[in-house]
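Open question from group meeting: does this chain pack into something compact, or does most of it stay loose? Before anyone orders reagents, we agreed to write out a predicted structure and look at it together. Recording both the input and the output here so the notebook holds the full record.
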Amino acid sequence: KAQAVCVGEKHDDARYHWAQLQILDQMTGGDNKVPMALGLEMLPYGVQGVLDDYTTGTIDEETMLARSGWKDRWRIDWGFYQPILRLAKTRGLSILALNAPGEITRVVSRKGLDALPASDRAALPELDLKNDSHRAFFRRTMDETKHPLPKDGLERLYTSMVIWDETMAHHASEWLKTDKRRKVIIIAGSGH
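Structure tokens returned:
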């Protein structure tokens, strides 16, 4: 009954992707008349038109991968995601590029939020950088995944992650609010 279902993953573990495929299949099979989407952490919102072209059949899978920059942007084997996106397309789901552009998050993680040009900063959703429980979650996630943390710049890395998460939430929410019947299945790393 939820409008949004988030399904986490360890990006390079096939078991997570198998589970995602099963969840997508169960939620979208049968006589489902609810408008649904598959939301992806893997691609920035700027390539949404490419995904739209793919879902409508205007372009094929190979062209979608090339035009979206999948290999350069995500760097995780397409084979993990291929069955999931193919099922979404076959079932008539919208496929949503939810993430912030890497160009923005890289600048913030290296130089800080103030280093962003005003136009990029204005395009960001509202950021909550004072949530202590989220900060603790971030730290635990970084420790558990053995993600390398900078000796300096931890605040910049955290801000970059908040931009990542808030942007995904914002774009999923924007898609949902146009029709109260809509539902979205969001695939993102377990750290989000």
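Observations to bring back to the group:
The mean pLDDT is 93.
The CA atoms of residues 178 and 191 lie 28 Å apart.
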